[in-house]
Design brief:
- It contains 17 helices and 18 strands.
- By secondary structure, it is of the alpha/beta class.
- Helix 4 (153-159) crosses helix 5 (214-221) and helix 8 packs across helix 12 (372-381).
- A 9-stranded mixed β-sheet has the order 3-4-5-2-1-6-7-11-12, with helices on both faces. Strands 15-14-13-16-17-18 form a 6-stranded parallel β-sheet, with helices on both faces.
- Helix 11 (347-359) links the parallel strand 14 and strand 15 (364-368).
- It binds adenosine-5'-diphosphate and alpha-D-glucopyranose.
- Alpha-D-glucopyranose binds at residues 23-25, 28, 177-178, 228, 261, 392-396, 415.
Amino acid sequence: MQRRGVLRILFASAEALPWVKQGGLGDVLGALPRELFALGHEVATVLPLYAAIDREDAGLELLATIHVRFQGVDFPTRIYAAPYPRSECRALFIENQYYFERQGVYQDAATGQPWPDDHERWFFFQVALLELVRQTDMNPDLIVCADWQTAMLPALLRIRHQEDRHLQRTRSVLALHNMGYQGVLPAEHITSLGLPRELLFPLSPFEFYGQLNCLKAGISFADEVVTVSPSYAKEICTQELGHGLDGVLRHHGDRVQGILNGIDVEEWNPATDPWLDEHFSAAHLGRKAGNRPRLLSSFGLDGNYTGPILAMVTRLTGQKGMNILAGCVDRLLTRDLRLLILGSGEPQFEKFLRDVATAHPERMAVRIGYDEALAHLTYAGADFFLMPSRYEPCGLSQMYAMRYGTLPIVHATGGLKDTVTGFLDDADHATGFSFTDYNAEALLESVDTALSAWRNARAMRRLQKNAMKQDFSWEHSAKRYEDLFFQVRDHSRWGE
Ligand code: ADP
Ligand code: GLC
């Protein structure tokens, strides 16, 4: 076999575990770089040094001090490094007191409102990242960006650094984790990046209804675009789920691939998970029930309840199907079940869920906030995991649920479609329940199907074992990324 050598890969991201996580992006950047490092590549992940990161706990070491010129101001900028857990792969942190020494990643944690200067923070981050590469002679083969926060990097590489010996051979890959957020900004903001305003003319790669669209620029300039499941890769090329960029994606369609996310099967293992009261496995499924009493009581419900438990662990946003849940939750709660929801997000959804729980204090409980320990216990102790997402690029939660023998009930979209086999589609191989029409009736019907399966202990066990047998480890997907990255390194779309 031909030797393909070592890839030098730099991931740019707003999140990566164990340092910062708001959703699945944190999980993915916590795992994929390590997997590629384990395959023998030189890999690092670049993150902002947020206030919430404890420098001592994280074992941060000063790597370099670089100079970043941004919006006419010189920022002497310290770069720190820390190893990933269980790996020698490194994360690099860009320090900037003004932009990152605040509580909250995307929003002000105190008010829940987006930072008014959010774009400036991400523009600074991207300019600083390229300076880091230049001033420390990193020579990466590729920079892998994630979502709009880092999506201007491909354009900066092509336009500002095309003649730059430090960066002219560096390719870019844009990973789309969520098309719902695009970084649409007043047109003149493009100049903050040192790019001329004239680049933003009608129908240009930067322009979106007269404004700057960072994600569109990323799609247009990246050497390759990848998203996190095969179904989502197709869906975003349709008007329904393209969030206004389906035309652009169809135009670049031959460069858009879908590679399913994996999960960290060591971290998420019901046989060893330190957050559980009782460990279990497919061979010892009976022990799963040992996690019910504390789960129920943590939510303030009677720990002796023996009927079906439905749970959600989620960001509370429109994406996650809150409106169809609202359309059937009262009817849902007439069934013999308990509904537990752990989540945080948009204030109107938080209030709505609190109000329903107050009206049904015996059957439903809500915990607003982010709680890793309770999330693990919930995946372990529940019987069903509800994920009625309107759209879902990949979704990791349903995979965690399956690994813990908790059957997902999902809207068949994106990664949910690619990972869950519905009971009504293939009863023998089913790993959960899925519905096709995005409405409250279909959701309720799917829950009712799940509840009838629950009444048949043998059927239920078969489904749980099927779910637990699925292999969602990163191994396969990491190899697909590796192939893609070799391809991008060796064949530039710009013909160099
Ligand atoms: P998304 O990234 O769209 O939020 P995913 O399913 O890919 O959806 O990933 C969500 C991740 O965030 C999962 O690891 C899930 O357990 C976690 N999570 C979401 N909300 C909470 C919460 N309130 N507390 C703890 N973990 C949460
Ligand atoms: C986004 C998506 C989610 C995906 C995650 C990691 O947050 O909403 O579906 O699993 O990114 O790729």
